[in-house]
Amino acid sequence: MTDRIEAAAAELRPLLQEFILWAPSHAPGSDPDLVGPVALWHRLTARDDVGLWKRGDLQTVLLERIPQVVEDPDEAADGMVPAVRAYLTFLAETGRLTKGSDPLDVLLAELAELEDEFVDKMEDTLSERDWDEVEDDEVDEDESLGDFEPFADEIAELPTIRLRPDVELAAAARAVPLIGQARDLAVWVGVKRKVGDETLLSEDEISEALAALSLTEPQQLWNLWNLAIDLEFLTPDGEDTVSVDSDTAAWPFEDDEDVLDAWMLGLHSIDYGDPELDDDDLTLALSGLTRELLVRVLVGGLRKPLAELRDELAEAVAEYDDLGADAWSAADDPLASVLGWLQGYGLVEVTDDDEVALTALGVEGVVHLVDDEDIEVDARTAIDAMTAHDLLSASADMSEEEADAEFAAWMRLRDAATAAQELLDAAVEDESDALIRVQAASMVGSLGEVAIPAWLDALKEPSLRPYAATHLTQLDVEDAPEPTQADTHWLILDMWTISAGLGRPEFVSSLEDIGPATDLIGLLEVIWKVRHPHVEELLEAIGDAHPDKQVNKAAKRALFKARSGEK
After folding, report:
1. pLDDT of residue 449
2. pLDDT tens digits, residue range 195-247?
């Protein structure tokens, strides 16, 4: 069905683009964008010929199909019928209402008859979706201990969270005690160890493993066993045997990326920190306590007094489960296993002031857990650890004011000439990334004359030469090359690349900035020669998106030349 939809949409696109141009002067009160779904589903469900409209087609499309597919029922109720009225008139007046169609007055009369019922259908559709949203909200309200969602607003309002670089995180991960113990357990298990059906290990094996790992409680052993599986240190090896992975004994690994990958595999082991009580129901009532502590430390500003945490968590446990208060009382110290596991995995520390604080690993881990829940959090690399490429990448998602502040903070840690070189070096790491390149040029351009050596060096890079030549000329640098026509064309292609990533309206608007269609056609006749990484896809996009047929043709001619390598 998807292929049919794409094919029908491609078939309709030129016709709808002409209608969009026709509508402002012939039907100024209509919204031509609302016609697309009607024309598409008419083609898919009623007629193979987009110009063939007969009485009954409107009922099929408007009353039966559109209620199932409409994105905004409220908008459709207000404007879809007037838009369809204009579209049918357009087909008739331009000779596109093909032979065999009912007369225009018959079609418009049917449309008038259907209007009230269509509006009712849209209102019903809107009510059903509102009801679904209410039901979804009710489901969301069924939250449990350890859910992050109730804290989503507080997390979104937190000041920017700064993340440490991988080299520091990897060094901390290598020292995580629990991973070392999981490694030792896996090595003790060895190769092809047979496990039982009811208990994985025999009583003698449990005693042997406890002694080998200097543990006192079997529950500690089973938590480490599960962690070893999470870390892929232990793997099933047949129906009733497990074996240590061949790389396990090498932990801590030499490569930082391998270390962090392993640590992330075990991150969800935080649930093993939840207290285990003799009564299963009481144990269940405390399920999620470890996550609840983590998220409360996060919203507390990455640290929180232990006494305050105890009070909050005792209240939360009682609120989330009828047995919560009993479970809390039944545990000698409900937070002992929680803090023991979180400290053992390198996530938190308890300070001399009796505060629970997230470590650098803990901040990284909690941000990942928040991301897993699709909750918005403002987390960025720490300024002192931020590379030029980190800065440019992060700035792409910031407002202009935020990006300026981040740039200013980054600049305070280095001299301007060095910063200019770092930024331009980062801009050439990926020639296809026009946004990074434009941002780098803008930042370096703001540094003035101190950036001249970096700009001169950038003349050697084809992707940066247009920017370097432009800025050096603006700075009146002696013997600096003047920007060529090819340089100007490269800059235009970069801007088109960025606008294409923002969506069709922004892309078309950037094309219109060139000037009248004749100017754009003239540009297309030469710009295809530029060896830009996106020139072919941009020419194809212009041929699809621009409302002027002559521009479409010029773009397709240019695309053919670019692909054929014509000189």
Report:
1. 96
2. 887 778 999 999 999 999 999 989 999 999 999 999 999 998 877 889 999 99
| Domain shared by 478 and 505, yes or no | no
Same domain, 398 and 276: no
Domain span at residue 458 reads: 388-483
Identify whether residues 453 and 506 lie together within a single domain: no
Count of domains in the chain? 4
Asked if 270 contacts 342 with a C-beta cutoff of 8 angstroms, the reply is yes
155 with 375: CB under 8 angstroms?
A: yes
User: Is residue 144 domain-resident?
Assistant: no
Same-domain check for residues 102 and 234: no
Is residue 543 in some structural domain? Answer: yes
| 494, 434 Cβ separation under 8 angstroms | yes
Do 127 and 234 lie in one domain? The reply is: no
Q: Among 196, 197, 198, 200, which residue's Cα sits nearest to residue 228? A: 200
> At a CB cut-off of 8 Å and minimum separation 6, what does 533 contact?
431, 432
Burial of 31 (C-beta count, 10 Å sphere; 0-12/13-18/19+): middle
Q: What is the pLDDT of residue 123?
A: 87
CB neighbourhood size of 297 (10 A):
23
Same domain, 371 and 285: yes
Domain stops at, among 436, 464, 483: 483
Pick the last residue of a domain from 334, 356, 382.
382
Q: What distance separates the 2 farthest-apart alpha carbons in the chain?
A: 92
Phi, psi angles (nearest 5°) of residue 380: -140, 160
Rounded to whole angstroms, the Cα distance separating 277 from 286 reads 9
Mean pLDDT of 7-14: 72
Main-chain phi, psi angles of 509, to 5 degrees: -60, -40
Question: Does residue 376 share a domain with residue 458?
Answer: no
Q: Which residues contact 22 (CB under 8 A, 6 or more apart)?
A: 90, 94
Report how far residue 34's alpha carbon sits from residue 72's, in angstroms, rounded to the nearest whole number. Answer: 10
How far, in Å, CA of 241 to CA of 347, rounded?
Answer: 32
Contacts 24+ apart (CB under 8 A), 95-104: 96/15, 96/51, 97/51, 97/53, 98/49, 98/51, 98/52, 100/52, 100/54, 101/51, 101/52, 101/53, 101/54, 102/53, 102/54, 102/55
